[in-house]
C-alpha cells in the first residue's frame, strides 16, 4: 500500500505580496489610531484621482484645505493624483507644490528629448534630417535579454531612426517589427530624473507611512492583472509606475511585475482610505465620465478612454462608499 501524502496548499508569490501589503496597512491603521487618541480628533485622508493634464487641479484643492486649516493625516492617489500626492507627502507645502508643478517642463518630461544645449553638432544635424523618429530595438539578442531582465526600468537601447531612403532598414523592420517595437513611445528617463531630484533623501527602499505625510499610490500589474498598492519601495519608482500610461510610457518592471497606470484598476482609491481606518475621506475626482462621439478623436483620447473603461467598475463602487 502506497503511503498517502497530504497536499499542502502552496503559497503563491502574489499571496505573499498581499500579506505584506496587509501588514503595512495595519501599521498605518495603528498610526492613525495614535493620531486619533493623542490629538483627540478624527483622522483625515486625502484621495486624489487620476486625471491627466487636469491633475494640476489637485494642487488648488490642497491650497484650499491648507487655507482652512484642514489637517491631512494620509494622502493617496492614482496616476497624476499619485504624482501630486507623492510630492505633497514629502513635506512640500501647497505654495511650494504649486511652484514645482508649474516649473516642470512637461514637454521635456513627457518625452525622451535631450536638451539641445547638451547635443553635439553632429547629433543636431542628424536629428534635423527627419520630421519623425521612432525607436526600434534592432538587436535580437539585446531584445531577448531585456525581455527576460527584472529591473526597475526597461533600459533604453541605442535608438535607430528609420527614415525615407534607408533601403537597408526595410527588411529589418519587416522581419523583426513586432519583436522590436518599443514598449512605449517614451522610456521615461526625463520624468524619472525629475522624480529623483524631487525625492532627494528618499531614494532608498522605505515604508511610505514613514514619510512626513503617510502615502499610498496605485499601479496596475499586467502580469497578475491586479492593482499594485504601493506601501513600500523606492518612491520615484512608485510615482513613475502609477502614471505610466500604456502606449505613451514604457511600463515599469520591478519584482516580477510589469506596472502601468493605476487607473486601469483603481482610479479613485477611496476604498484604501477606508481600509486604513480614516474617519474623514476628502476625495478629488477629475474623471471625465463617458465621452461622446466628437470627443474621441486621437490616440490620446482612445488610450485615456480605454483606461477609464477598465477602471470604471471600481471607480463607481468607490464613489458610492459611505
Please explain how this structure is put together.
The structure is a single chain. The protein is α/β, with parallel strands linked by helices. It has two domains: 14-110 and 188-316, no CATH class; 132-186, no CATH class. It is built from 13 helices and eleven strands. Strands 1, 2, 5, 6, 9, 10 and 11 form a seven-stranded mixed β-sheet that branches. Strands 3-8 form a two-stranded parallel ribbon. Helix 2 packs antiparallel against helix 4 (94-103) and helix 9 crosses helix 10. It starts with 12 loop residues before the first helix and ends with a helix.
Q: What's the overall average pLDDT, rounded?
A: 79
Low-confidence stretches: 4-10, 149-169
β-strand number: 11
Structural class: alpha/beta
- Strand proportion, as a percent range, falls in 5-15%
Largest sheet: 7 strands, mixed
Q: Count of helical segments?
A: 13
Number of domains: 2
Radius of gyration: 22 Å
Order of helices and strands: HEHEHHHHHHEHEEEEHEEEHEHH
The outline comes out as globular
Helix content: 40-55%
- Gap from first CA to last CA: 59 Å
Record keyword descriptors for this entry:
322 residues, alpha/beta, 2 domains, 7-stranded mixed β-sheet, two-stranded parallel sheet, 11 strands, globular
Topology:
Layout: H1 13-39, E1 44-48, H2 57-67, E2 74-78, H3 80-89, H4 94-103, H5 106-109, H6 121-127, H7 140-148, H8 167-180, E3 184-186, H9 189-198, E4 206-207, E5 215-221, E6 226-230, E7 232-233, H10 235-242, E8 247-249, E9 252-254, E10 257-261, H11 270-275, E11 280-284, H12 299-310, H13 312-319
Parallel strand pairs: 1-2, 1-11, 2-5, 3-8
Antiparallel strand pairs: 4-7, 5-6, 5-10, 9-10
Helix pairs in contact: 2-4, 3-10, 9-10
